[in-house]
Amino acid sequence: MPDHVIRSLALVAALGTIAHADKDPDGEIKLSLPTESDRVAWLRPGFRLGLGIMYGEMVGLRGVRNGRELAVNMHAGLRLDADWSLIASFKYGRVSAANGITGFIYSGTLDPTWHVTHSFSLAAGMGFGGIVSGRTNAADVEPLGANLQSGYTFSSSNPAMPFCDGNGLIGVLRAEYSWVLGPRSSTHVELEVVGQYISCQDPTGVTEPDTATPIVRTQYWPMTGGTLSWGLTWR
Amino acid sequence: MALRLAIAIVVVAASVAHAQAPSGSDAGSAAGSAAGSDNAGSGSAAPAGFVPPKALTSTDVPYPSTAPAITEPLAVTVKLRIDPTGAVTKVDLVTPPQPIFDDAVIAAAQQFKFDPGTYDGKPVAVAITFTHTFLPAPPTTPPTNAGSADTGPPRTSVLRGKLVELGTRDPVTNASIVVEIAGQTYNAESDSTGHFRIELPPGDATVNVYAPAHDHFVQRETLAAKQEVAVTYLVARDRYDPYEIVVVSDQPRREEVSRVTLRGPEIQEVPGTFGDPFRVVQSLPGVASIVSLLPYPVVRGASPSSTAYEIDGTPVPMLFHLLAGPSVIHPDFIDSIQFYPGGAPAPYGGYTAGIIDGTTARADTKPMADVDLSLLEVGGLVREPIPQLDATVTAAARYGFPGLLLSLATNQVSLSYWDYQLRVDGGTKTNGWTLFAFGARDELDTVSSTADPNAANPPLSPALILEFHRLDLRYHQTLGDWETTYRLIFGYDHTYSDDVDFDVLSVKPVIHSRYKASKTLDFGFGADGSARKVAQDAGADAAANPIAALTAQLTSSYSAGVYAEALWRPTPSWLIRPGVRGDVYSDNTATKQSFDPRLTVRYKLADRDLPEIAPGTDDSAIWLKSSIGIYHQPPRFVLPEPGFDEMPLKYGLSQSIQTSLGAEIPFRYNISLSAEGYYNYMDPTVFDLSTNEATAGTSANSSLLPTTIVTGDNGEAQFVQRLTTPELGRAYGVELLLRRQAKSGLYGWISYSLSRSEREMDGQWVPYDYDRTHLLNLVAGYPLPRNWDLGMRAQYESGLPATTTAGYNAGRLDGYVRIDIRVDKRAIYRKWLLDFYVDITNVAVQPEEIEPGFSLRYVLPTIGLRGRI
Global pTM? Predict the structure, then answer.
C-alpha cells in the first residue's frame, strides 16, 4: 500500500478526532467507579466470547499417522450461573509433520462446563471435526483410485490411505484455569484431550458417467490427541 | 484448473481480507433515511433530518404501592410507539416479566406526552425504547432531603454538572442523582439538557446516577464548605443499538408484488456476508448461486448477467471486488436494499430477471469519522457538514492488500484493490442536490509469461485489471405536487484481461418525475439514455481470442428509454400499478427496440387486528398480489465486468415475460409471511452462463467457461456460437418468506424456494445448468445485554444438474449445507465506539460439489475492528 495513501487515511481520521473534541465546560469528565467487583461480575450470567491459540499433537490409531497441530479456537456461549456454562467451541488450524499428516483441521463441539472454583473449570463436549486435504508421504494402498469404476470403502484403517478429506465425530475433555483481567476481559490456559473418528475420502476426480456420482475411496480414521492453549475471553 | 485456482484464491484471500466493519452508526443517533412510506414499514434506521421525540410530561413512574421492597435497582424496558401528535399509542414490554413493576411502567407510559419526532421538520410516528429503573428504598432512616425544608447539616456546598452519554456525547435527561453524605441522601434530577445542580453539606459524597436505559453510575466527590464542584459524568447506556430508533410510517404503502426491503441489521449483521449489504440478498427466496462464495446470483433461474446490481436505480459495472471481495461501496452509504426477484416496475429497464438496488440516503448532518482495519485492508469514512455551503461532505476510501496473505501460500498469484466514494449533499431533501463520485480498481497478478518456469520467485504481471469510475450529479426538486429528480452520470470503465484492453467512456442522463394527482392517484414519468464509446486495444487479436472476437466490431452504443406509470388506489382495498416502458438500443452492429408493458395489482383481502401493528395500515392487512410484465435487455456477457458488459446488438435482445401470484399475511410478534408463485418465459435468452458438458465424459470440466473455450480444434467458433445462439427458457416455482423484522429482539427470516429453470434443447425442456430445486435459508439475529449481538445463517441449496449418459443435465450433483455464525461486540469509550466482530462462514466446513467429481471445502473465519468517533 502506498505510503501516501496510509498517511492520508490517518490524517483523515485524526482530523475527525480533532474536529469533534470539545472542552466540556461543565467540569471534570469522570467515568463511573466500578459498581461491583470484577470477580463478581464474571460470575454473573451472560454471554462470553473467547479467542485463543492452541498447540498440540494428533495421534493416529490403528495405522493412521500422527501430526502436530497449531490452531486458533473460539469459545462462544452463555454463563448460566455461578457454577455452569454452556459453550460452543470451534477450532481451525493446520496439522503438519515430517512423516505424518499435513493438512487443515477443524472441529466444533458443544461443551457443558462446570466451574469448580472461581478460576478453574472442567468441560466435556461432543461435536464434529475433520481434516481437509490431509496428506502423508506414505505409499498408496490398493485398490488404487485410478482402477475404480465405483466407490470403495476400506474395511480397516491399516494400512492408511495417503490422503484424507472428511469429517466425523469428536469428543473433548477440557480443563481451564482463568485469571480475571478486568470487568470485560479475562485470560485463560486450557488443557484439552480429544478423540475423533473421521470418515476420510479420497476423490479420484472422476464420476460415474451414468449418475454423475463422484468415485471416491473411503476409510475411517480413529485419532486422539492433546492440546495446550492460551486465550482471552470477553464478557 | 482456472476455477480451482480461483477458488483457492478465494479461500485464502477471504479468510482475512474481509474484516469489514460491521454495522453501525452512533447509538441512538440519526443515520440513514426515513423508512419509506411506500414499503412494508420495515425501516429500522434513524434517518437524516431526524429529530427524536422529547418528553413534555414527567416520565417518572411511581413505585407501585403493592410491590415488595427491592434491594437492588430494578429496570423495566418498554417499546413506545409515539404517533405524529406525540401521543403514546402502543407500549410493548421488552424486559422479562416482572408483573407489578411492568404494569406500573406500562400504565405510566401510556399517559406520557411527547413533542413528536420529526423528519425534515414533519412529525412522524416513531418507536423508541424507554427504561425506568426502580430504586431501592434509601438505606438510612432519616428522611430524604430533597427540598428546601432541610433538617440536616447546613448545605453550603454545591455539586453541579452535566450527565453525558458515554460514547455518543448526548445529554442524559430525566436522570435521578442520589447523593449520600454522612448517612443522609439528597436527590436531584437532570434537566432536558442533562444538567443538574444540588446543594449539599460539605463532606465525602457518594454520587449515584440512575437514568432510564442507562447503567448504574457511581462516583465519589469531596466537597468543602462554600465550594462549588463542577463535574461531567459519562453515563453508559445499557445497550448501544444503532438501529434502536425506528421511524415507522403512518400509512406504509405497498406498491410492488415481489419487492423485499432490507434495512438496519438485516443488511449489515447477517453472518457470512462480511457485513456487506448486497450479499444479504443471496439469502432471500428465489436466489441461487453458481458457487456459494461468488457474488453472481441466479435469480429465478436466470443467468447472472440478467440481474442488475444498481445504486439508486442506476447499474454499476462492478459491485464487488474480485473473488469473494467486499462490495465497492462503503456499507454506511447504503440505507436499504430493494430486491425485486421479478415484477420490477417500469422505471427499471435493461434487465430481464432480478433487480438488486442499493438505495443511498442523504447524509446526516452529524459529523463522524470511522476507521476500519484488518490484516488485509484498511479503510475509513469521514462525514462533515459545511455550513457555508449548506452541505454535508462524506468521503470514504479503502485499500485492500490480500496479496500479502496470498504470498504466504503461493508466490504465483497476488491481488490488490481499492475503492473510494465522495458524496456532497446540499439543500434539503425536497429541494436539494447531490454530487456522488465513486470508483474502484482490482488487479490480479499471475506469473509473467516471460518468466523462467524454474524460477523460485517468478515475476508477476497483471492478468486481470478491473476498474471503473462514476460521477453522479443529481438535483431533486419539489414543486407543489411534482417531485422531479435530474441526474447526469459520467462513467469510465476499464477491463484488461489476456492482453485485451477495453476502455469505455459513458454518459447517462436520467429524469424521474412523480406527480401526486390526488390522495389515491400518483403518476410517474421518466426518461433515461446513455452513450458509450468503446475503445478496444489495437493489439487485441480477435482471431486468436474468442472474447475479443465477440466485441471486435463494437465501437459505440447508444440507448434511450422512456416510461410512464400510475399508482392508483381506487378503493382502500385495491392498488393498481400499470406502467409501460419503451427503449431503443443502437450500436454500430444493429439497432433494436423494445416495448415493455407491466401491471401490478394488489387486493386487500382483510384487515387483521394485531397489537404490534397500527390498524388500518398496509402492514396490518392480508394482501393478494399479482404481476405480469415484459422485460428486455441488450445482450450482456455471462459475468459482467467493467466495460465488458454489453455485447454487440447484432446478437439480439433477450426478452422475458414475468408473471406472479401471491399473498402476504401478517401475524403477531411482527412476523409476516409472503408466499408467491411465479412463471417466467424467456424468449429468447442469449449469453446464458452455461458450463456443462454437452455429452457425458469421465473427466470434470474445470473451468467456468464452456469446454469449447478450453479445448477443441475450433474453440473460438464453438464458444461464440454457444453463447450467442438464442435459446428458449422457462422458470417457475413457489417462494415463501417468513420474516420477523428488526424492531427489537429477535430478527431474521426463513426463506424457501421450490423452483425449476429449464432451457429448450432439441425440442425437449432440460434443466438449466444452474437450476437448483430447493433453496432454504434461515437467518436469525438476536441482541444480548452488554452490547453483544449474535447472528446465524443456515443455507441449503440443491445440487446442480450434471450431464450423464442419460443425457444433458439428466443427473445432479450433491446439494450443500452451509452454516455461518457471527458475534458482534460494541465497546464504548469516552468519545468513541469500538466495534469488534467474529464472523465464521461455513463453520462446519461442509463440502460443496461445484462440478462432477470436485467438491470445495472451505471456512472463512474473519475478525473485524472498527473505531468510530
Answer: 0.80
